[in-house]
Amino acid sequence: MTPFLQMSGISKRFGGTQALRSVDLTADSGEVHAIVGENGAGKSTISRILTGAVQSDAGQIRLDGKLQYVTSPLIGQQLGIRMVAQHANLVPNLSVAENVLLGAMPTGRFGWWIDMAAAHRQVEQILESIGFEGINVRRRASRLSAAQRQVVEIAKAVSVKPRILIMDEPSAVLAQDDLTKLFTLIRRLREQNVLIFYISHRLDELYAIADRVTVLKDGALVGTVDPRETQRDELIRLMVGRPLQDIFPRRVWQAGADILSVNSLSRTGVFENVSFTVAQGEIVGVYGLVGSGRTEVARCIFGADRAESGEMRVSGRAYRPRSPRDALRAGIAMLTEDRASDGLVLGLSIRDNMSLASFAAVSRMGVIDRRTQSELVQAKAREVDVRPPNIERPVGKLSGGNQQKVVLAKWLLTNARLLLLDEPTRGVDVAAKKEIYTAIGHLAQQGMGILLISSDLPEILGMCDRMLVMREGRLVGEFSSEEATEENVLACASGGGKGTHAH
Amino acid sequence: MHTEGGAARFRAWWFAGGEPRLGALDLGLMLGFVALLLAGAWFAEAFFTERNMSNLMRQVVANGLISLGMLLVILTGGIDLSVGSVVALGGVLFAGIADQLGIGPALLVAVSAGAFAGFVNGTIIARFKLQSFIITLATMGIVRGCVFLYTEVPISPSHSAFRDLGATLIGVVPLSMMIMLACYALVWFYLNRTPAGRATVAIGGNEETVRLAGINVQRTVATAYMLSGALSALSGAILVSRLGIAQPSLGFAYELDAIAACVIGGAALGGGGGSVGGTLFGVLTLGVINNLLNLVGVKSFYQDIVKGAVIIVAVLLVETKRRKK
Asked: Are A352 and B194 in contact (CB < 8 Å)?
C-alpha cells in the first residue's frame, strides 16, 4: 500500500546554511506524526516546503502516490495542506471572524456584499466545534493575546477541512488547559482521517499524542520511531546526537556583588511587579511561554521600552534608562531575539556591524580610525570565532550561528558588564550553539553578569546558575540549578507547580 | 617584486568583501555608458568638442549636487521631494542679496537657508516617525510658496562677480564642476569614514538595530535631510549664477531627475543600498543623454520618454540582481 504522503530527497539551502539535506519522510492519513529536533534542525523548513511557502532545491512530494509540485501556498491549500504557524500570521486590523474566513467570507444576495452577521455566526460555530469557544469574533486580531491568536490560526486552518494539518510548536504559546483542548481536537481530527504533523521539542507532548516521531538533526533525517517502543533517553540521544551536558561549558561560579537589582518593575498590560537580581559572574535564566513578558522585561532594562513603575539599580546606583544609549553607558547590552529584524544590518560588513555600538571607541574627532577599528574588530572576531574571519564580508552572507557571533561581538566591544541575551541560539546549528555557550561561559567567568532568556529548556537548565520562571507577566518561580528539573520548571511556567518561592 | 605585491594588494582590496567591488552588472552599465559616449561622437559632431564638454559639465552640476543630497536621504530609507523648491530658495536668495552682501556671504546665507529647510524636514520626520514622502511633499509646497513671497519676478543682480560661480572655466573644467566633485569627495568621506555616516548607511538597512546600538537615530536622519537641503540650495545658487537670472519657478520637478540618478546608480528606495560613486555615474549618464538629445535636436518630450525608458531598464537590471542575492 502506498503511504498517503511521501516526501523524498528534500533539500533546501538558505544563504550559507544547509537547512535540509535530502530528507525522506512518509506519513499516513489518520496519523499524528511528530517532528522533533533542536532549534535549527529543519523542522519548520520541511513544513514550509510541504505547504508551498518555500520551494525545495531538490526532492519530490507525492500525495496518494501522485507526484505534486507544491510551488506556492495556493497550490498547497488546494491540495488540502494547512499549517498553523508558530508566529500567527493574522491581519492585525481585521476582526477574528474576517481573519478566519479571509478570502471565503459569506456574501448576501448576488454576492454583492459581505454578510457580516452570517460570518460571525459561522466563526462562532467553528470555534465551538473545535472546543475553543469564548473568543469574541468581532474583536480585532491586534487586540488578542498570543494564545488567542494561536487559537484563531487553528480555527482558520481547521475551517477548510484540510487533509494535512501542520502545527508548529503550538505549546510555545498555549497554557496547560488550552493544550488539553488542543489534544482533544487533534484526536478528533485523527479520527476524521486527517494527517497531523505536530512539531515540538517537548517530549511529554509527543508521548501524549504522537503515533510516530520523526527526528531531524542539523537538517538531516535521523530516523522515524514509534514512541511506544522508544525510551525518553533514546529519543534525546537521537535529537542531540550526544549526551546533553557535553555541549554546555563546565564552570565554577563564585557569587560576586550584585550588578543589577530590579525591584517591583511594572509595565501596564505587559508585566507586573517583577523583582530579581543578577550578580557578577552569574548566569540567570528566564524561562516562560511566548507572551509571558520575559522579553519585555529585558527590553525595559535595556531602555528600549520604558517601565512605568518600580526601580532598578546598577551596582547599587539608581538606574532609569530612557534609551538604549543610557543602558550602554551604564554597561548593559542586549542581544535581541530576532537577529535579522533588530540585531544586524544584513547588507553591511562584519566591520560595520561589530563597531555599530562602539563607534566612540574607534574614532577621533568624529572620524573613524580605520586601523584601530580593524584591530579591535579583528581581535573580537577571533575571540568569538567568526567564520570566515574576513571582516569586510557582508553579514547577510554568514550562517545563522556566525551572524549571532557577530551580534555578540558587537556588544562585547561596548565593554558591557551585564549582558541580556534573548534566545541567543535560536536558528543556530548545534556546533555554533556549543561555541556560543562556550563564549557565554567565558564571559561569566570573567565576571560579566548574564541574563539568559530562552524557551529552550535544556539550554536554560544546562547554562544557568539560577532560573526565574515567568507566566502571564508575573514572576512565578525561582529555582536554583540543583532543584530545577525539566518537569518542575515546565509545570511552573504553564500554571501547574511552584518554584521555591512564588512572588 | 614590488609590482607583484601591488597586484596582490589590489586583489585583496578588490575582493575585500568576498566578491568584486564592481560586479558584471556594474561593468556592463559602465560599458553602456561608454557606448553612449561613442554614439554621441558618431551621431553628433559637436559632441566631443571642448566647448560642448565644458557645457556638459556645467549642465550636470545642478542635478549632481541635488542627487548627492538625495542619496543621503535615500540611504536613510527616506525620500526628499522638496529639493526642487529648495533649489529655488537657494537660487533666489543668493541672487536677491548678492548685491548688498557680496558673493561669499550671500552664498553662505543661501546654503544655510537650504540647510535649515532640510533640518526642519528631517527633524519632523525623525522625531515624529512620519513618512518622508508626505512631509517633504508638504514642505515642497511651503518652500515654493515662500520663494514666491520673496519675489514674484525674476531677479538679475548687477554684482560683477555674480556669474563667476556658474560660469568660470579653469581650462576646460568649470569651477562649479570642481565644487561638485569636492562635495562628492566630502560626502564619500562622511558616509564611509565617520560614525555618523556609517550610521546613516546602517539606518536604511535596519533602523531598529541602529537605535538599539545606542546611536541617536533622530540626529543622524535630521543631518541627512539637512545636508540634502544645503546641497540643493548650493545647486540653486550655482544654477542662477550660470543662467545670470533667478526665477522663482526655478528647479520645478528637479526632484525627479535626482531620484532617477540615484536609482540608476544602484540606490534602493527604502534604504539599504546606494553609493556615492554610483550616484555620480547616474548623474553623468542622465547628463549625457540630455546633452546628446539636445545636440541632435530631439524635442524635449522625446527626451522625457528616453530618460524614462533608461530608468526602467536600469532599475530592472539592478533590482533583479539584488533579489538574486
From this structure: no
Beta bridge partners of A63: A5, A66
What is the predicted pLDDT for the residue at A468?
95
Domain assignment of residue B85, given as a range: 24-324
pLDDT, tens only, B53-71? 999 999 999 999 999 999 9
Map out the domains of chain A with their CATH numbers. 5-90+144-241 (3.40.50.300), 246-343+417-493 (3.40.50.300)
Contacts of B216 in chain A (CB under 8 A): 325
Distance CA A80, CA A165 (A): 8
**Residues A153-189 pLDDT 10s:** 999 999 889 999 999 888 777 877 888 899 999 999 9
Provide, as residue numbers in chain A, all residues whose Cβ is less than 8 Å from the Cβ of B213: 324, 328, 356-357, 410
In a domain, residue B8? The reply is no
The beta strand positions in A290-368, using DSSP E, are 309-314, 317-319, 332-335, 363-364, 367-368
Q: Which residue has the cell 584601530?
A: A372
Residues with Cβ within 8 Å of A452's Cβ and at least 6 positions away in sequence, in order, are A283, A284, A285, A286, A421, A424, A440, A459, A460, A463, A464
Query: Strand locations in chain B, DSSP E?
Result: 169-170, 173-174
Among the partner residues A346, A368, A392, nearest to B205 by beta-carbon distance: A346
Q: How many domains does chain B have?
A: 1
Structural domain includes residue B123: yes
Please check whether residue B17 lies inside any domain of the structure. no
CA dist A292 and A278 (Å) reads 20
The answer to whether residue B73 is domain-embedded is yes
